[in-house]
Amino acid sequence: MELIDAEGNIKISDTRTTICIIGARQHNLKNVSLTIPKDQLVVITGPSGSGKSSLAFDTLYAEGQRKYVESLSVYARQFLDMMPKPEVDSITGLCPSISIEQKSISHNPRSTVGTVTEIYDYFRLLFARIGKVYSPVTGMCIEPQSASQMVQRILALPVDEKYVLLAPIVRGGKGEFKPTFAGLKKQGYRKVKVDDQFYDIEEVPQLKKNTMHDISVVVHRFRIPNQEDTQFLDTLTQSVEQALRLGEQYIVVEPLAPPTGPTLHLSGTMSCPVSGFSLPEIEPRLFSFNSPYGACSFCDGLGVLSFGNFEEENEQDNAVCNKCHGDRLSQAALCVKIQDVHIAQVGKWPLEELSTWINHIEPLIEEDKRVISTPIFREIKSRIQFLMDVGLGYLTLSRASGTLSGGETQRIRLASQIGSGLTGVLYVLDEPSIGLHQRDNDRLIRTLHRLRDLGNTVIVVEHDEDTIRQSDYVIDMGPGAGYLGGNLVAKGTPKEIEAHPNSLTGAYLRGDKKILVPEKLRSGRKDEQLQLVDANVNNLKNLTVSFPLGKMIGVTGVSGSGKSSLIMDTLCKGIRHLNQNRDLKDICGKISGTEWIDKMVEMDQSPIGRTPRSNVATYTGVFTLIREWFAMLPDSKTRGYTAGRFSFNVQAGRCEHCKGDGVLCIEMHFLPNVYTTCPQCLGQRYNEQTLEVRYKEKNIGDVLKMSVTEALSFFQDIASIHKHLSIIESVGLGYVQIGQGAPTLSGGEAQRVKLAKELMKRSTGKTLYILDEPTTGLHFDDVHQLLILLHRLADQGNTLIIIEHNLDVLKTLDWIIDIGPEGGQAGGYIVAEGTPQTIAECPESYTGTYLAPYLKKTY
């Protein structure tokens, strides 16, 4: 139901079916008013920087979070003043809100997929309740048994065989043990077994004092009867109980000569009667590598011995722990098994394989343990299924959280929310399709529909065409980025957006605007190629791959197929090793052709810095030019200010209250930390004296708050600064503030900042560029502009290797390598390689199936 008239006035307030926003002005939003239908899948789209996140996260979610805190205790409400209220006149009909963003879950090496999803916690409970203990020395199953259970085991021995019941009292002990024998004789025992020989107790030879000895007492000699004998049963039971008391809960039933029957080693405790290996009561914490009770003591539960710094972004010289061999757990934890599998093995299997194993073993669980295991299996299976439904079946529970991409992290959170079963919630997601192959994207869309069908409102900031077309409602922001955006361009069903004359998104949906297929592919550099031989990192199956130089090459495949393993973990790492004169052990057999390239530039989605002090301007070097320009102003020269005065890292010029950060961090014990503007500099970062120096009525603090596009106009008369800013804008970052802190940049934005920095350098024509999903976070039109720049690099003779799923990108490339066919262990093969047309004609290629229709579009 429409609640706002043409003038933006509220007509009616039906908070049951809609969320009504009046006068949203957060960041670049220009007094936006609209209604959003509840219980639907709503996509907010538009060019990068058009205001999508400002509307979804900084307005809707932020206000929802504030409303939640308002409902808490008096103690919690004291933090409300520290949580800035979004600049909006009113929001009605708001539901409790949950944000699912692309931020990494944790960089703590102890955090894994299993711990984050809580699946590993359920496995710990499962192994503690139904796992069986096996001696690491003998491999025997160790089960504590009562005397009656032991008697039943004995009665199952071959009939008419003669046996002796022994109670071990010394195992591997040094000494003569004269008092021991004397005590046994006094108790009435007449026979003992010493070091594999039977003796009358009076005839035991003198034992060597410094030699290890095993001593057992003969408690009872018997023959298994042909038929049930009540008297024999009573006598045997009494003998077993007597042996248990004497041998500290251990007994051995051994056949007498000729030994045709088996030997029974039985224990009343969690101990091996042969080796003496013992285990206390099994608890879930035994299987926690974050607990001293269960962690490997040698590596403290990390699985590796660290010789380097975990914060280093380059090579980390960490060796696998030689005690637990990377399993993280103590020997005791690894001795507990279900169907001959210990918990560390479970953690190393891809979720799809793990799901198959669970379905196989569940019917095999003993009847008396099913009451305990059934609810645990139910939780494990449902959580694994949710993860597979969002295309993460290739992940393992032992995978470190810090190695996950933003898209993988977000989809894990999404799966967890579906598992929670909440209804009436407003979910706000930030491009969940990132990192997904088109086949896996279909699964994701089904998951979003499922979350909606539970009775929730799902708002997704997204550029993916399929997600837009399969949504219920679309909000198109724009028309441009930064100060050129912030307007509501169009809203309605996908078909209404497609037909809207002013919508840039609609123009691409209906085909008025399009990314064209090149008429001619590059021939590349004749006979020059990079070649990998026997690549076997992770799931790669000893691949030999050639990369023709002088071309734009795409590496694609379903999620988890081995793309990053091939490029980032093998090619890039291998070339770095060669440059450092290190061998290629555990990477590949050989890399040839490096003589044809003069340098390799990696542009992945890792942050450009870890603190707010690192930003777009400092990383690209533009800020140095700006500081030098401010230092040349007449007011600066009069005051004696140098370029250093305009650095927020230098005490002379910065605000000391916030140390030049412009914000103060408030720790919230029940919510994420809140950053509030510094009350002294008001977010300007500098002290009053520094801010008095102005150029065109703007001080250095004002300049840092400008978007790249605004700064481009502001510095249009200063050639050096203008040139650098124009390159940053050309990679689709015109909307980003030049002083925006590195931690606030998405992975895609960080990657494009790196690309801009490279474009500022003079090209040699022999550079190898490695890009990891450069279209992350980009609208159709931004992808178009980015491709123009990438093709410009390739036209200069450089080689670009791009890990990518975007079909509009793949159709413009010269060469494609398709990895698969599936994710995890079912991947790691080359499915197809060649031109886009060759891939499209390959029936085994999932990529080709989706790519073929794109190649049929007109030039």
Automatic annotation (TrEMBL):
Similarity comment text for this entry: Belongs to the ABC transporter superfamily. UvrA family.
CDD domains (alphabetical): ABC_UvrA_II
Name the record gives this protein: UvrABC system protein A
InterPro entries named in the record: ABC_transporter-like_ATP-bd, ABC_transporter-like_CS, P-loop_NTPase, UvrA, UvrA_inter
Annotated GO MF terms: ATP binding; ATP hydrolysis activity; DNA binding; nuclease activity; zinc ion binding
Domain ABC transporter: 10-504, 525-852
Keywords assigned by UniProt, alphabetized: ATP-binding, Cytoplasm, DNA damage, DNA excision, DNA repair, DNA-binding, Excision nuclease, Metal-binding, Nucleotide-binding, Repeat, Zinc, Zinc-finger
Tagged with keyword Hydrolase: no
